[in-house]
Amino acid sequence: MNDRLQSWWDVNSFTICTLRPPSITLVGVSAAVLIAGGVLWIGDLISGAWVAVIVGLLGLGKDAFSLTIRWFTSPHASLKADDRSPQLLLSLRLTLDYEDQGYQIVAVPYRLNEYVVRSSAVDSFLRCHDVTLQENQELLNPITEKLRRNSEILEDALRCQYRQSWRADPPRRFVNEAKACLGQDLFPSQEAIWIYQGSYFHSFLTNELVTRILESGGSRPMILYRGSEHFPRIQRSQPALAEACL
To answer: Can you give the pTM of this predicted structure?
Structure first.
């Protein structure tokens, strides 16, 4: 039960802080107007304080009340495997500069349609040499901006995963733990590696979701989101912002 409460809290706090942050200014002004109207109402009803009360309630209703409703509801939809993902994963190719560094696409043992890009040469280099790690939290900003451009549908996907995780047999944990994330690809020639702090939910929404579809419920289900449409088709040859987390 503690894990489920933690999961519920993590999903909602990630939604508020990262995906769909409410306008603090609007909520604050609405609350201030509502409180001021209540004070005036107690003092003198004829003063027109009821107008301030209504304005405050309308403002809070747009932001705070709707947000509270989302905290306790789950969309009438489900996450399923995207049937286009296997073919896309099989068609993934690396550029020559990655192959020169020994990078290969390797299937994850005992996991269907999951692959990693790894290099034994780079692995040996990291094990035998000291490498400087430089933290730059600003590297997370482009990922956050990308998530917010699709925040409504991604919130639905996150809430569906929360619901389906706890309805699985046996139930699965779905909590948002902090993760160290790479800000660039790894090459032995680098003097330093840029990193930043992300979270599991960042990985879920940028990595795992590309193999899923979000499908509406009802007798005529519709695809609301298809992850394969956001699949990275080309491996970039220059060090670039990596959305995958360690």
So the answer is: 0.75
